[in-house]
Design goal:
- By secondary structure, the protein is α/β, with parallel strands linked by helices.
- Helix content is about 35%, strand content about 20%.
- The protein has helices at about 5-15, 40-45, 70-90, 100-105, 140-145, 170-185, 200, 205-215, 230-240, 295-300, 300-310, 330-340, 340-350, 360, 400-405; strands at about 25, 30-35, 60, 90-95, 115-120, 130-135, 150-155, 155-165, 190-195, 220-225, 255-260, 270, 280, 290-295, 320-325, 350, 375, 390-395.
- Helix 6 (about 170-185) runs parallel beside helix 8 and helix 11 crosses helix 13.
- It is globular and about 60 Å long.
- It catalyses: (2R,3S)-3-isopropylmalate = (2S)-2-isopropylmalate.
Length: about 425
């Protein structure tokens, strides 16, 4: 009986014949914490009486959720991270370096076939490059820092077969929103989501990150894809680390399989206050919006910025609307400067902020006021997600956000493409 990608990676890393629902202790290839979770992990590390991390070259801490620090108390937490990183000799990505989930693949820390944990729920992002990556709590992070190992319950796998080609004006964000709306927010709880098919193969690696990033929004533990030629070429551009891609066996056993034809998919929007409250953009078109956000670990990469800039070039955002743009990393921001993309955003009336998570997580850089509608490329729209539980968050692609800030209301981006 064959194995899924998840079963194969956990078998290799544990040295066991791992099958769905087995409990294994597995070796970790990389461990990550961000500024919302690392201080608690450092405290747990001390409480466990540890002195040294298992391998400094396999650990990074990233200051991205509140960067630069908006509060004195947060500054103290950042200080703790900097001191711990210096003491242990681990990687530290400080303010302005970018979002953790952009940095780990971009900086070559994770490669196909790896097993990775991060104290952030969207660690599942790296599944797009064939990495079993998943979010953990701060105490589990501390255990990983010390031992280089962690226990896992091997997940069952939910296979998504995506046939056809996405139509013009429809993007990977629309696709993953549609899937979440279809299977619901708990439709893949504790499963490995495995995405395959012509529609996935057609996507760029950057677009695939968007899909794997939001696997957690359907309850999945990870969002895995095979490493095809596009992935292998992308990874080789970012690191010289050796790696061994993992593919599912032809006779792998899946808990669920769903097939879709995406050829007629329309732009999608997730309405407040749940990510699975999804509809075609036409059903909410005309809804007034006061703020747009382009960025985050879901859609702050170069491809996303180029799509939005194409729509905004030579135009001005609506007088009653604000636009916040947060590139996913320093490298992305520099490339956007070189291509003139930031100039397009700024001339259109946008506020370009430090690479980081602030607007999405609601720590700073764009907290909405009571009753305001925000349209965002982020991955969550729960009450209070952006720092105000009396605001309303709609999720959409960078194209839909760009079109909407031009008109001041939710707008089908195909009108501008």
């Amino acid at each position: 009986m064959g194995k899924t990608i998840a079963e194969k990676i956990l078998s290799m890393k544990s040295g066991q014949d791992a099958r769905a629902n087995d409990i294994v202790i597995a070796d970790l290839d990389f461990v990550m914490g961000q500024d919302g979770t690392s201080p608690l992990a450092i405290r747990a590390f001390r409480e466990m009486m540890a002195k040294k991390v298992f391998d400094p070259r396999k650990i990074a801490m990233v200051i991205d959720h509140s960067a630069p620090s908006p509060l004195q108390g947060v500054s103290e937490l950042h200080h703790q991270m900097r001191e711990f990183a210096r003491e242990q000799g681990i990687y530290l990505y400080d303010i302005g370096d970018g979002v953790c989930h952009q940095l780990l693949p971009e900086q070559g820390h994770v490669v196909p076939g790896n097993l990775v944990i991060g104290a952030d729920s969207h660690t599942c992002t790296y599944g797009a490059i064939n990495v079993f990556s998943t979010g953990v709590g701060s105490t589990d992070l501390a255990a990983g820092l010390i031992s280089g190992k962690l226990w896992f319950k091997v997940p069952e796998t939910f296979k998504f077969v995506l046939n056809g080609k996405l139509p013009h004006g429809v993007f990977s964000k629309d696709l993953i929103l549609y899937l979440i709306g279809d299977v619901t927010a708990d439709g893949a709880t504790y499963m490995a989501a495995e995405y395959t098919g012509e529609a996935i193969r057609d996507l760029s690696v950057e677009a695939r990150f968007t899909i794997s990033n939001m696997a957690i929004e359907m309850g999945a533990k990870c969002g895995l894809m095979e490493a095809d030629d596009k992935v292998i070429e992308w990874v080789k551009q970012h690191t010289d680390k050796p790696f061994e891609p993992v593919s599912p066996d032809p006779d792998a056993v899946y808990a669920k399989v769903k097939e879709y034809d995406v050829s007629n998919l329309e732009p999608q929007v997730a309405k407040p206050h749940t990510v699975d409250n999804v509809c075609p953009v036409r059903e909410v078109a005309g809804t007034p919006i006061q703020q747009g956000v382009i960025g985050t670990c879901t859609n702050g990469r170069m491809e996303d910025l180029r799509i939005a800039a194409k729509i905004l070039k030579g135009k001005k955002i609506h007088k009653d609307t604000r636009l916040v743009v947060a590139p996913a990393s320093r490298q992305v921001m520099l490339q956007a400067i070189r291509e003139g993309i930031l100039e397009i955003f700024i001339e259109a009336g946008a506020a370009v902020v430090t690479p980081g998570c602030g607007p999405c997580v609601g720590t700073h850089n764009g907290i909405p006021s009571d009753g305001e509608n925000v349209i965002s490329t982020a991955n969550r729209n729960f009450k209070g997600r952006m720092g105000n539980n009396k605001a309303f968050i709609y999720l959409a692609s960078p194209a839909t956000v760009a079109a909407s800030v031009l008109t001041g209301k939710i707008t089908d981006p195909r009108e501008f493409l």
